[in-house]
Amino acid sequence: MISDAPVPPTRQIDPTLLQQAMTLIEAAQRIALIAHEHPDGDCLGSALGFMHILHQMGKVCVPACADPAPRVFSFLPGVELLQQTLGDEHFDLVIALDAGELTRFGQLYQHHQEFLTSVAILNIDHHISSRGCGRVNIIDPVSAATAELLVLVQQQAHLPLHQDAALCLLTGLITDTMSFQFTNTTARTMEVAALLLRAGAVPEKVAKPIYRTHSLASIRFQAEVINTAQTDCNGRLIWSYATGETLAKAGATPEMGDNLSAILCDIEGVQIAVFFKNYGESALTDLSLRCAAPHNAAEICMRLGGGGHARAAGATLHMPLAEAMPTVVAELKRVIKDEEQVSADGVSE
Description:
- The chain has two domains: 15-211, inorganic pyrophosphatase (n-terminal core) (Alpha-Beta Complex); 216-348, Diaminopimelate Epimerase, Chain A, domain 1 (Roll).
- Helix content is 42%, strand content 17%.
- It is built from 13 helices and eleven strands.
- The strands form two sheets. Strands 6-7-8-9-11-10 form a six-stranded mixed β-sheet, sandwiched between helices. Strands 2-1-3-4-5 form a five-stranded parallel β-sheet.
- The chain is of the alpha/beta class.
């Protein structure tokens, strides 16, 4: 049921943009909701949560992602419906969630490139680095998660909201704020969370499988990564890595490394933490970056061809791990040195 306590009107979606988005949705009968590759709680929770909302509006919806949902998200209602393909491409509308560039949808984009460059796309995202990939783009970096933005859409457009949708959207909020611990959490974020709880979402159903239940393999994997961590800049910079050999040694699976940069960043004195991974033989290296103020992870990763948030971002480098690590570490040392110089100049003045 729709909540009787709407989000306050401050910082809502531009009414013109919302009307354009609703025009696309109302005209469509078959809708694909696509989540970016290497899915996290926000893109999955957003795709499945909005799917439930659109189902109540009588729409036929298909959620899709290039990669399967990590096992930790098996509690999400409707996750079993997630496809790795758009099939016969018989859709009137595609809603692209939690990324602003079609390439971020990985193999899904590559396999359906001609279709995705011609179909009507509604793009909803909250990343500061997003350029927008849709006919209509609702991009709001103030939102802590794309899920927060979708609740604003739901409230302003007076769309239905039931318990399953609320749980999925709460998952997006909780995972992108680390249980409301990150600085992207605002008063509006908490108001949206309260609304989802009133609609029936239970925080423990999200927090327990994600933050309080750990397999032995995942703990061993974390130990391997921490054991190989290196530091510089008097402990302000830390980095580590994992390969297919690391996974095999710990008996782990790739998604178990999704939060390792955050764990590294929690070490005392660290300002910038980066985790590199290359689990195959390809010359591609993925990295995830976490930063404490005043450093901006999104700005750093945009220079590397990626993007994200001010405190958490990522990139894929077209180079092997042995080349990627020293290249990025050198850049991060420069970032810290430049900030030290700025601080010193400020003090001297």
